[in-house]
Amino acid sequence: MNREYIRWYSPVLQKNMEMLIFGYGGAAVLFFPARMGRFYDYENWRVIEALRDKIEKGYIQVYCVDSVDCESFYSTGFHPSVKVLRHIQYEQYILNEVIPFMDKKNPGSFKIAAGCSLGAYHAVNIAFRHPTEFNKVVGMSGRYDLAVKIGHYEDLLEGYWDENVYFNMPLQYIPNLEDEDKLLAIREMHIVLAIGQEDVLLENNRALANSLAEKGVNSSVYIWDKEAHQARAWRLMVVNYL
What we know:
This protein is an alpha/beta fold and 242 residues long. Helices cover 38% and strands 21% of the residues.
């Protein structure tokens, strides 16, 4: 299996950012790591190994990017407004540096945003905010409003709210989205949400699917047996949905 390690200095983030690329062609998968994760986690968790057949046959090319979660939503000692601004910088890194790199390496490819846990949030949020960039989005074990407490998941913005928070929480902005051009682009996207029957985020996923349906957007929600917020389940999910 073709494997490449890539690193460059990101002007917008003002730090070196790393990624791993698996494969040589096919649909380009922008794969966000799980909560506070790193670019090598999916390889270490054998999620990439589960995709070996698709990768080696040239069906997909997987770009495992790094995160800055520890500097944004999961940072300590910073005001919530600063946390969300760092997240917005990360989005700019993806849009202005990573995606052009992917387009140069794999021009004209079908583009998929995907992720597990907080990576699912990153994938879904960027796909809905910039739907013309993606053909498909796959969120596995995701949470789509980080500004509310759900079970053991804390409100990551500590009760703080502003427009930057609102426009980065899919469960907040999708119900009020009226931009027809953006809605049309989202309707053309293949949307997959996967979650476990016993996962505390199950209703969060159902709420997002319902909000999309109210906007005329089709999505596929797959509910797995028991609790599925773990690498064991993700190794199976990726084979089915990527």
